Automatic annotation (TrEMBL):
Pfam families hit by this protein: DUF538 (PF04398)
PANTHER family: EXPRESSED PROTEIN, T31J12.3 PROTEIN-RELATED
InterPro entries recorded: At5g01610-like, DUF538
Superkingdom of origin: Eukaryota
Protein name per Swiss-Prot or TrEMBL: Uncharacterized protein
Amino acid sequence: MLVEKGRITKLTGVASKEVFVWISVCEIYFDDLSSDKLTFKVPASLTATFPASAFKDEVEKDDSEH
């Protein structure tokens, strides 16, 4: 695993279940560090982007609302 600012590459041991199939995730990154969009990449170079707020834990969500 290689960690850089706003990016994790050469990731192993992480998978996502998509329509009954587990797919390995090889990279997680922000396209732009000021963005709230987190992108996940699989070895076939396919990507999916989600709001980073979807991955905050409950404590972080509660703190940001106050």
